Amino acid sequence: PPDPNDPCALLGAFDGVGHTEQLGGDPVNINWRINCLAKEIEFTVESTLPDGWLAIGFNTQNVMPGTDAYQMWFAADGTPRVQNGFSAGKGAPAGGQNELLNAVTGERNGDNVKFTFKRPLSP
After folding, report:
1. CA 30: distance to chain centroid?
2. In whole angstroms, what separates CA 18 from the centre of its chain?
3. How far apart are CA 97 and CA 69, in angstroms?
4. 122-74-29-12 Cα dihedral, nearest 10 degrees
């Protein structure tokens, strides 16, 4: 049987999995690719950014408290930023900027945005 402590053994060959969620009328597209050799996962998040930032989060329930959250925005100089942290409630996650992340890229065309970032499979 697969090792329950090894995400690649449990996930098998999943690659390019995606999900779309309607948030406030705007679709948020989340796609991910798993690299088992590098033991990392790459996320691509696309949506509109009328308020200047975008966030996604993951947990075992459909609520914000207890979420491993990622907040995305563009700095004043146009540099894409992704902050990872733990969300204790409704609000910005606690944690350091780009914590556990690498290879952050972003594109902006008006309000349409696309962020791509990587993180370890097992933080």
Report:
1. 8
2. 12
3. 12
4. -20
What distance in Å separates the CA atoms of residue 76 and residue 68, rounded to the nearest whole number?
Answer: 26
Q: How many residues does the chain have?
A: 123
Mean pLDDT by 10 residues, the chain (123 residues): 62 56 73 81 84 80 79 88 78 56 81 88 68
Phi, psi of 40 (to 5 degrees): -140, 165
pTM of the model: 0.75
Q: Which residues of 16-54 are buried (b: 16+ CB within 10 A; e: fewer)?
A: eeeeeeeeeeeebebebbbebeeebbebbbbbbbeeeeb
64 contacts: CB under 8 Å, gap ≥ 6: 57, 87, 89, 90
